[in-house]
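To illustrate the input format used throughout this study, we show a single complete record. The first block contains the structure-token representation of the backbone; no residue identities are included at this stage. The design step must infer an amino acid for every position from geometry alone.
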């Protein structure tokens, strides 16, 4: 074989020869200067300016697979390949829709050839150190649209008939290997480390309305059960169907499971269960917390049951049930429903109310197991009063005294009501001392008139009464021998 080497010498107007002589180095070309003024050619590396504009256009590239991109899909240096549906089978959750054009369809793995090695299909990473200012992120350190690693947008027009969605993420699993594994549509993680003073927030979601004709929801979370078997609640762990599962983790107790706050406006209803949304218990506590429900702050009403209808008990506990049915009776309790009833769960239990001072019981009022009524002095250890059905009340101990007080005091209105007279007592019982001038009659006017004529007993202490005494709903009139400072007493029962 013969080799023909042709060395061409270029001649220029000044007679100087070109400088591209000898053996060129690797990856060099014989060319004029890479930039600047014209000069003799020489061997040098190629630069971008050496490639004419329009030399590399899409029409000059090799065809690529549909909806794919050129990428190196290996863990090292390699020739790029078409990365997209050609390397896997496109997946979906409900319906397989073709990728819009222009669009990108990236699929990795298939049922016949699933991914068996660790690592994500696509990774986006960002390390930042940004100081917000008027010209940077509008001086707003929480403007996450300004510094997002990935920003995805969807805008619906005024005539859009769809519920537009910026992001749809779905996970479908048919694994029978581990029952604790889940098909996670998204895993969101917020973490603070080192000496950070910020907050690790797993997700921030906000629903906003800028027009009163629309509505807003911060997050809609739905639990679905498309089986013939109803879901059940587990009081000790994960239920087989639920919409929200809130747990805590770490080395110390977490402060709050669910907290409501005010970022500028308050809620009308903090937690609301709408009509027909719950069939079992709206709120249930299976913990051993020190306090199940604690009400603090300033409220008009602690617990309001006025809007509820109860076919059973409004409140119920292992020992007692409290039934509030809005009774309307004013005189005879048997003529209407009780506003509040203590109903023991068993005949062997008392129905009792304890009246306390700083958590120490002072008085007890209730019904014994034999249906007798009692008022018990817990400090003195005595039954002050007991009542037996169809038998009446007994005041005990035997040396106990009964005192009737309060209301408007009775007064002397004629007969013996002059100077020196006095009344000591009430409409129920009392003692009278007449005026210093001798008289033969005395009229006591009750502080509050009885609705019917009371049953009264009057007796003279200075001397016996003379004749009959007269009783009306408003007065008690007695007669006696002419006496100064006549003293007598009375007892009246009535309503």
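Output of the design step:
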């Amino acid at each position: 074989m013969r080799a023909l080497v042709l060395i061409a010498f270029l001649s220029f107007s000044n007679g100087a020869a070109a400088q591209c002589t000898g053996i060129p180095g690797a990856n060099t070309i014989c060319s004029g200067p890479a930039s600047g003024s014209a000069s003799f050619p020489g061997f040098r590396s190629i630069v971008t300016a050496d490639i004419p504009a329009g030399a590399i256009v899409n029409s000059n590239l090799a065809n690529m697979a549909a909806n794919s991109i050129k990428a190196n899909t290996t863990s090292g240096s390699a020739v790029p390949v078409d990365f997209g549906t050609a390397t896997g089978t496109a997946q979906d959750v409900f319906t397989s829709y073709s990728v819009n054009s222009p669009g990108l369809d990236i699929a990795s793995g298939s049922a016949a050839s699933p991914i068996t090695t660790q690592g994500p299909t696509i990774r986006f990473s960002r390390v930042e150190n940004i100081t917000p200012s008027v010209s940077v992120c509008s001086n707003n350190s929480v403007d996450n649209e300004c510094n997002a690693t990935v920003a995805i947008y969807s805008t619906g027009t005024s005539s859009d008939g769809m519920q537009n969605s910026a992001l749809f993420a779905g996970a479908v699993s048919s694994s029978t290997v581990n029952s604790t594994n889940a098909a996670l549509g998204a895993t969101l993680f917020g973490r603070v480390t080192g000496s950070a003073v910020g907050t690790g927030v797993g997700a921030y979601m906000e629903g906003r309305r800028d027009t009163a004709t629309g509505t807003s929801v911060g997050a809609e979370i739905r639990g679905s059960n498309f089986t013939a078997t109803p879901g059940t609640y587990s009081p000790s762990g994960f239920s087989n169907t639920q919409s929200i599962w809130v747990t805590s983790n770490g080395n110390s107790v977490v402060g709050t499971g669910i907290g409501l706050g005010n970022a500028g406006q308050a809620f009308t209803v903090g937690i609301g269960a709408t009509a027909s949304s719950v069939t079992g218990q709206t709120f249930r506590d299976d913990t051993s917390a020190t306090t199940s429900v604690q009400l603090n702050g300033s409220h008009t009403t602690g617990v309001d049951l006025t809007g509820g209808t109860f076919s059973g008990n409004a409140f119920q506990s292992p020992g007692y049930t409290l039934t509030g049915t809005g009774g309307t009776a004013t005189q005879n309790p048997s003529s209407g429903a009780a506003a509040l009833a203590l109903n023991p769960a068993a005949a062997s239990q008392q129905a009792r109310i304890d009246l306390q001072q700083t958590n120490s019981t002072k008085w007890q009022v209730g019904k014994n197991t034999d249906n007798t009524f009692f008022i018990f002095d817990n400090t003195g250890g005595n039954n002050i009063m007991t009542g037996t059905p169809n038998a009446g009340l007994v005041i005990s101990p035997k040396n106990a005294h009964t005192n009737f007080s309060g209301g408007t005091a009775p007064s002397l209105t004629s007969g013996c009501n002059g100077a020196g007279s006095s009344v000591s007592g009430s409409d129920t019982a009392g003692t009278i001392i007449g005026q210093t001038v001798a008289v033969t009659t005395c009229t006591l006017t009750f502080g509050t008139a009885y609705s019917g004529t009371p049953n009264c007993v009057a007796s003279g202490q200075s001397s016996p009464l003379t004749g009959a005494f007269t009783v009306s709903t408003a007065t008690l009139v007695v007669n006696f021998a002419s006496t100064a400072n006549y003293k007598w007493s009375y007892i009246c029962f009535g309503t």
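Structural context for interpreting the output: The chain has no helices and 20 strands. The first strand starts at residue 29 and ends at 31.
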